[in-house]
């Protein structure tokens, strides 16, 4: 698969320590030695927290983790099934898919055991898979300015309820590029679940 590349359409970081653009700094920042995959996990959690905050949702983390990363809850007077509804969210992150994936979907591979959990139906609490695409280099993950913090690139979501297992050990699923995971998408998901429907 192609590796993620920086998005030329994103705003450049115009200022850094000492007022110098990052390209003109004499030395790169002293980043920690934590594995890149561990940093990717932290980054996707930051994205989820930002989306949940903007959507007015609360978050909780199952302990111990039983194959689901987060529970997201949304209270609103318009819900008919309860005053507060909850979904389960499984997060994944990759730099092997470029930003703005072409076409209506992109491929993502899951271990079969994970897919079985996400595909179970019927359920009392709905589950969604959220896949984050990031640049390969940590240097390109964030762009900070006086008026914004850009976190790159994007998360997409899907509901895999009823999806068949097709591979021997792993199964490739299709993630719709139309389903960008942001606060409006999360509010819409919660409205549908609050009305007794699926995400």
From TrEMBL:
Domain DUF4365: from-to ranges: 45-192
Domain of life: Bacteria
Residue segments, region Disordered: 1-31
Protein name stated in the entry: DUF4365 domain-containing protein
Organism: Streptomyces silvae
């Amino acid at each position: 698969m192609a590796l993620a590349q920086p998005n030329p359409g994103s705003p450049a970081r115009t200022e850094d320590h000492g007022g110098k653009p990052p390209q003109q700094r004499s030395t790169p920042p002293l980043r920690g030695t934590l594995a890149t995959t561990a940093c990717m996990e932290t980054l996707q959690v930051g994205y989820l927290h930002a989306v949940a905050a903007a959507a007015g949702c609360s978050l909780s983390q199952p302990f111990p983790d039983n194959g689901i990363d987060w529970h997201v809850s949304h209270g609103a007077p318009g819900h008919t099934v309860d005053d507060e509804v909850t979904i389960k969210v499984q997060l994944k992150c990759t730099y092997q898919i470029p930003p703005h994936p072409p076409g209506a979907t992109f491929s993502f591979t899951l271990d079969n055991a994970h897919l079985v959990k996400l595909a179970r139906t019927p359920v009392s609490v709905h589950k969604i898979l959220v896949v984050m695409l990031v640049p390969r280099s940590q240097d390109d993950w964030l762009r900070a300015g006086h008026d914004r913090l850009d976190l790159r690139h994007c998360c997409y979501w899907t509901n895999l309820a009823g999806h068949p297992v097709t591979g021997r050990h792993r199964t490739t699923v299709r993630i719709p590029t139309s389903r960008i995971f942001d606060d409006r998408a999360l509010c819409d998901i919660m409205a549908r679940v609050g009305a007794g429907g699926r995400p």
